[in-house]
Sequence to fold (178 residues):
Amino acid sequence: MLNDVKEVLVSEEEIASKVLELANKISTDFENKELVVIGVLKGANVFVADLIRKISIPIELDFMAISSYGSSTVSSGVVKIQKDLDASIEGKYVLVVEDIIDTGLTLSYLTENLKSRGAKEIAICTLLDKPERRKAHIDVNYKGFNIPDEFVVGYGIDYAERYRNLPFVGILKEETYQ
Ligand code: IMP
Ligand code: MG
Fold:
């Protein structure tokens, strides 16, 4: 698995200190507010698990699974809800937690969908962002790292369902997916 990685882009240590920084901000910003943290499966699973354990205010945790990629490395723009929320978000503050924003098409669909359910406010938190690739405008409230236009894996992020268990974010060697 490690042999397929060309370069470590964000180390375990860098991720851990960023997670703490983001969680502290979130804890301050949503103090005394009813916050629902929504992890976008499967990619954000590792990030959301670490993030919520550094958030010091009461939260509810829920998950959604949406498909955008299949096993290709290019966004299709086709978004499908595979697993919906368990509970209503009406009147609540919502924090959507994503692994990576690429074109923004997935999150743009998702935020519109969540708005229509009567959430009081929707904020976005992403570990990684590829701003060069954006096709839909997204207001990112909490961001870990801007990264270049490279295909990355690790810390929950996959290529064809593999590499999610790498503890860092790395760039995959091209020959791995060509
Ligand atoms: P978007 O709709 O193009 O913003 O796609 C966002 C989703 O595509 C993310 O939640 C990831 O699941 C996936 N994705 C985008 N870039 C990468 C990457 O570099 N590696 C793995 N998955 C990615
Ligand atoms: Mg994803």
Residues 43, 68-69, 75, 98-106, 151-153, 157 surround inosinic acid (ligand 1) (CB under 6 Å). The longest strand covers residues 59-67. The chain has a mean pLDDT of 93. The chain has one domain: 2-177.
